[in-house]
Amino acid sequence: MQGISPPIRFDERGLVPCLAQDWRTGEVLTLAYMNAEALRLTRETQEVHFFSRSRGELWRKGETSGNVLRLRQLRYDCDGDALLALVEPAGPACHTGERTCFYRDLDGAADPAPDAPPAPGEPAPALSLPARDGAQFHLDAHAGQPVLVSFLRHAG
Amino acid sequence: MQGISPPIRFDERGLVPCLAQDWRTGEVLTLAYMNAEALRLTRETQEVHFFSRSRGELWRKGETSGNVLRLRQLRYDCDGDALLALVEPAGPACHTGERTCFYRDLDGAADPAPDAPPAPGEPAPALSLPARDGAQFHLDAHAGQPVLVSFLRHAG
Q1: 74-113 in B: which are within 8 Å (CB) of A?
Q2: In this structure, what CATH number is given to the domain that contains residue A47?
Q3: Are both A113 and A129 inside the same structural domain?
Q4: Is A107 left (phi over 0), alpha (psi -120 to 50) or beta?
Q5: What pTM was estimated for this model as a whole?
């Protein structure tokens, strides 16, 4: 995991955007920024760290709320200037208490995603779907949430 | 759709990051940038437009490849400085031919998502899962792809 870093291209501020996506549900949770140190700490601790542009400091996501983002896989895009962290969130990812920061649409309608978390510790019965192209698809019946693993077949 | 715009905060370059996510599978396809004109055109035409930072010009995604991104819903985050476009891609979203720009992970392993597209025109039988909190979950058996609608319940 800590081998030679691929060519991540930080911008003129030394930052790269990183979006966090729930690895179980596929829901996009938040978009924030990492500097090199945040990226290093994220890989080392397997918990997502960002760099706060407003506060100008490193920030372990959830360090005050407890709603940390446990890293499951860290991907990067074709030109190396964006990151995608597939994560297991400990709670709502948004500071508003919403599960995702993207809880509104441009129609202006209040459109929050349902926020009820799955009961902790409850086993998650899984239904396997047919494999396709070597990828395995699962359906997680836990709390009625589908699990999307089509692009996660080497993850956790 | 074209009502009063919510307060989207463009940065000092006049840009806002926008990530495109496949509305059927939940897969994150690409991260790019919009200026105010790209945002306006995206909403007006219901096809995703970006602003190319390298070329310094407006860019209808897929205008040369044909792999346009049909807009299904446009969301914005809690502080209005990031957009999430839920889209129906006409083909691979990445200029490399991969389905998503995020086809590699930081372990360095080649880890492309399976790229075989579902057969066009084939009906997609759907299996409904129990509703939870008013949200409807579906499983799309078409080509073995699960469909994630937990946060799309007001979308097309």
Answers
A1: 74-79, 82, 84, 94-96, 98, 100-109, 111, 113
A2: 3.10.20.810
A3: no
A4: alpha
A5: 0.72
